[in-house]
């Protein structure tokens, strides 16, 4: 009954979204305020209805209602509650419903917090958002309906994939979707602005918080996924340049570019058409990512051809929205006249370079991702594009980005003085060079990767600190820092976060120590200065799995520093094994242990990895997100959001 | 099907579902019995393996893969090395048998130059366009504020007042 209610609510939300798509847009054209006013309640109603549908599906998962096809294929009664709930979006149909829910949520939030938007712009934004909603609700209802019943309800389900039964991955998809779909509202703003025919500072001010929010969610989502890969896949890799990962990375890079170019529109009324284009592309690449992941087109062209229904539908959505928006852009871009005038040495120029690096690197990822498809279809060549290509083709852009970032972040608007910025940054540069030199001298092999990465990371962190320090003024009043706008703090924190991530990547890639051997119980051995001793191996049992569990002691200079229990699990229902690495997390390094098979001649395979600075990768991501959050709470957005309390306390001006 | 299930699975759930199959015990990437006694040769083998794709996996090198086919390839690579092949010869040997599909780093031959040129060419084009734009912005006459209507000006003041 509840399931049917959810199904009905979902169908109803499709009709509400259709109304929300048509009536306000028509109202904006015909200048009928009553019609335009439909958008707001419709957005709320759409959200409520999709919410009911989602709640109904969650209820079915929680109560293990196996009469539902989806619950049967993705759940099991013995599964822990957390994974019963995460099972809702751990599959195609449910994740599309989550996608629709978030789409409706963002639409509703734009309706609730868009009080100070001009009525016609607001009507158009909500209408475009509803159009995206209609497309995805139709996709869900017609090709991926989560509410299908089975003729005969089975006794129990076939379980969720064990790899997904993990806290990191339970929350990875919702964050990722909040990011992907959050970009839809930027897209809606861009299309609405093109229809309205005006883009100004106010527009940028409305768009930027949404971009920031989407970018924060994407950052967290990607970091969670990468962290999960690190501890779950059994050898401590954190990024594979897998098409699925690239699908989330491209929108992230575009969102980062959009974030920065919107500042130029907001402060200087320049780069308008570029920013609108970026807003379209950012969401366009979210859609491309969805297409890549959902259609299976990259796994195999033939798999796609055999079951093209979903893929073609998403391709249609992608072509309609991206193509339509780009056509509109081509027709209307000329009305967006740039106003700001600035010199070549200026913050504006630095942000242009930032945008070039982010956009080009994202396109490199895109071309690399689809190249196997292009080569097969156009040149009849079956080839692969993997990590070695991306490492070579992508990394240089990030190196350049890291090099110029601290300078660009400090240079003045309009006409900057390069010599002054350079002078302020000399200590940071010297520090970075010194640390990198020390690393170069200390490491045994002569690889450049470590020192270069450490240089960039140190340079970024020290550059961010210098930026803050320069805000204390001539008299070095620390108290001035507390009066800085939060956006300025956000900027410094996010940039430092990027530096910390770079340090982590450099450390982990350059100085990873690996040891693979057959360990005999009671016979300690040395790995990278640590003594590893396999004490015992037991059989253990969990709620829906059983495992081989190793008991391993790690010693440093004779003293025990950690006792770790790596497992090899078997999930009998899902018929799938997983490795559960045991990790001793420390600030400077992780010790990462994996237990393998028993050997015929006695002993077990034990893999030991020493992972220097591994945590820094995700710590940096968290710091970046925090920076974004700080920026999001900046006063000027709260002002823009309609809180018009007069306040005389105007701190230090932003620049 | 069972070989697929031994690959690293980094895909959303519904795709993983399609790859599921019955598996007893899994082998893990490089096993101790594969490792060559000479550390220099082993390091070369690891280096080569990282660039060769496991044929039955999704975007995974034979060095990372748990599939039995990847294990066979790893052993093949090590055999060629102990027989005195150079790195290039080993790779050429594998490509001869399995086609360029095994190369995770595509060649620059044929139309592949387009793939490799994407980054540099786009970057140069973007820089050139930006240079033109920046020059124009630096020399443009400032736009007077006539674009603002009376109503907008009032609204702006209201916002600025906070």
Topology summary:
The complex is a heterodimer of chains A (655) and B (162).
Chain A: H1 2-30, H2 33-36, H3 39-62, H4 69-74, H5 81-86, H6 92-113, H7 119-143, H8 167-196, H9 201-232, H10 243-268, H11 272-295, H12 301-306, H13 309-332, H14 347-378, H15 387-410, H16 418-442, H17 449-470, H18 479-482, H19 486-510, E1 513-519, E2 525-527, E3 530-541, E4 546-556, E5 559-564, E6 567-571, E7 576-580, E8 582-585, E9 589-598, E10 604-612, H20 614-632, H21 635-640
Antiparallel strand pairs in A: 1-10, 2-3, 3-4, 4-5, 4-6, 6-7, 8-9, 9-10
Chain B: H1 2-5, H2 13-19, H3 39-50, H4 68-82, H5 87-98, H6 112-139, H7 150-161
Helix pairs in contact in B: 3-4, 4-5
Structure write-up:
The complex is a heterodimer of chains A (655) and B (162). With 655 residues, chain A is α+β, with helices and mostly antiparallel strands. Among the domains of chain A are: 160 residues, Up-down Bundle (Four Helix Bundle (Hemerythrin (Met), subunit A)); 100 residues, no CATH class. Chain A is 63% helix and 11% strand. Chain A is built from 21 helices and ten strands. Chain B folds into two domains: 101 residues, Cytochrome C biogenesis protein (Helicase, Ruva Protein, domain 3, Orthogonal Bundle); 50 residues, no CATH class. The longest helix of chain B has 28 residues. Chain B is elongated, with a radius of gyration of 28 Å. The termini of chain B are far apart. At the A-B interface, helix 6, helix 10, helix 14, helix 15 and strand 1 of A face helix 2, helix 6 and helix 7 of B.
């Amino acid at each position: 009954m509840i399931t049917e209610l959810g199904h009905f609510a979902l169908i109803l939300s499709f009709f509400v979204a259709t109304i929300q798509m048509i009536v306000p847009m028509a109202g904006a054209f015909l200048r009928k305020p009553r019609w335009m006013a439909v958008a707001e309640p419709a957005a709320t109603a759409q959200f409520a209805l999709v919410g009911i549908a989602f709640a109904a599906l969650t209820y079915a998962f929680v109560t293990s209602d196996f009469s539902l096809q989806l619950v049967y294929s993705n759940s099991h009664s013995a599964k822990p509650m957390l994974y019963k709930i995460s099972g809702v979006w751990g599959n195609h149909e449910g994740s599309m419903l989550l996608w629709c829910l978030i789409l409706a949520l963002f639409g509703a939030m734009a309706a609730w917090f868009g009080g100070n938007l001009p009525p016609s712009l607001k009507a158009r934004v909500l209408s475009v958002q509803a159009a995206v909603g209609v497309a995805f609700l139709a996709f869900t209802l017609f090709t991926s309906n989560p509410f299908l019943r089975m003729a005969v309800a089975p006794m129990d389900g076939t379980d969720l994939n064990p790899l997904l039964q993990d806290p990191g991955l339970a929350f990875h998809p919702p964050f990722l979707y909040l990011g992907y779909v959050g970009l839809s509202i930027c897209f809606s703003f861009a299309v609405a602005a093109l229809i309205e025919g005006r883009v100004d500072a106010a527009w940028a001010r409305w768009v930027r918080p949404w971009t920031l929010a989407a970018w924060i969610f994407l950052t967290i989502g990607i970091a969670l996924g990468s962290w999960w890969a690190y501890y779950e896949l059994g050898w401590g890799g954190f990024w594979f340049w897998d098409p699925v990962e690239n699908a989330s990375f491209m929108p992230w890079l575009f969102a980062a570019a959009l974030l920065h170019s919107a500042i130029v529109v907001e402060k200087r009324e320049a780069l308008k058409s570029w920013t609108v284009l970026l807003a379209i592309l950012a969401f366009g690449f979210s859609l491309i990512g969805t297409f890549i992941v959902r259609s299976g087109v990259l796994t195999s062209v033939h798999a796609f051809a055999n079951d093209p229904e979903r893929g073609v539908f998403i391709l249609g959505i992608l072509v309609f929205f991206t193509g339509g928006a780009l056509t509109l852009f081509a027709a209307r871009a000329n009305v967006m006249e740039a106003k700001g005038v600035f010199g070549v040495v200026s913050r504006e120029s630095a942000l242009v370079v930032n945008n070039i690096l982010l956009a080009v690197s994202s396109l490199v990822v895109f071309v690399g991702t689809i190249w196997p498809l292009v080569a097969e279809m156009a040149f009849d060549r079956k080839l692969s594009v993997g990590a070695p290509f991306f490492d070579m083709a992508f990394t240089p852009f990030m190196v350049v980005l890291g090099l110029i970032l601290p300078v660009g972040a400090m240079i003045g608007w309009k006409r900057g003085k390069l010599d002054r910025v350079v002078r302020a940054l000399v200590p940071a540069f010297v520090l970075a060079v010194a640390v990198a030199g020390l690393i170069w001298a200390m490491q045994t092999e002569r690889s450049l990767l470590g020192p270069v990465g450490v240089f960039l990371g140190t340079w970024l962190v020290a550059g961010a600190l210098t930026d803050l320090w320069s805000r204390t003024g001539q008299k070095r009043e620390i108290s001035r820092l507390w009066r800085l706008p939060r956006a300025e703090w956000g900027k410094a924190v996010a940039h430092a976060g990027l530096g910390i991530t770079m340090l982590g990547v450099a450390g982990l890639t350059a100085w990873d120590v690996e040891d693979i051997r057959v360990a005999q119980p009671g016979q300690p051995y040395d790995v990278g200065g640590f003594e590893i001793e396999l004490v015992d191996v037991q059989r253990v049992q969990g709620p829906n799995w059983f495992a081989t569990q190793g008991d391993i002691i790690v010693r440093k200079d004779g003293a025990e520093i950690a006792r770790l229990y790596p497992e090899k699990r078997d999930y009998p229902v899902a018929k799938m094994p997983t490795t559960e690495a045991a990790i001793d997390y420390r600030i400077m390094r992780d010790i990462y242990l994996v237990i393998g098979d028993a050997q015929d001649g006695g002993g077990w395979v034990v893999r030991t990895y020493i992972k220097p600075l591994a945590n820094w990768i995700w710590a940096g991501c968290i710091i970046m997100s925090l920076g974004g959050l700080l920026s999001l709470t900046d006063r000027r957005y709260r002002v823009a959001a309609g809180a018009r309390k007069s306040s005389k306390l105007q701190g230090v001006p932003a620049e | 099907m069972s070989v697929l299930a031994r690959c690293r699975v980094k895909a959303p759930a519904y795709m993983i579902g399609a790859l599921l199959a019955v598996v007893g015990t899994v082998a893990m990437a490089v096993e101790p019995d594969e490792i060559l006694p000479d550390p220099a040769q082993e390091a070369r083998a690891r280096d080569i393996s990282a660039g060769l794709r496991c044929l039955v996996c999704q975007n995974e090198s034979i060095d990372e893969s748990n599939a039995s086919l990847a294990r066979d390839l790893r052993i093949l690579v090590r055999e060629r090395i102990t027989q005195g092949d150079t790195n290039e010869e080993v790779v050429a040997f594998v490509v001869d048998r399995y086609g360029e599909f095994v190369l995770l780093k595509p060649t620059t031959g044929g139309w592949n130059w387009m793939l490799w040129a994407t980054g540099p060419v786009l970057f140069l084009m973007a820089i050139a366009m930006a240079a033109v734009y920046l020059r124009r912005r630096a020399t443009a006459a400032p736009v007077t504020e006539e674009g603002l209507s009376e109503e907008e000006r009032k609204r702006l003041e209201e916002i600025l007042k906070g």
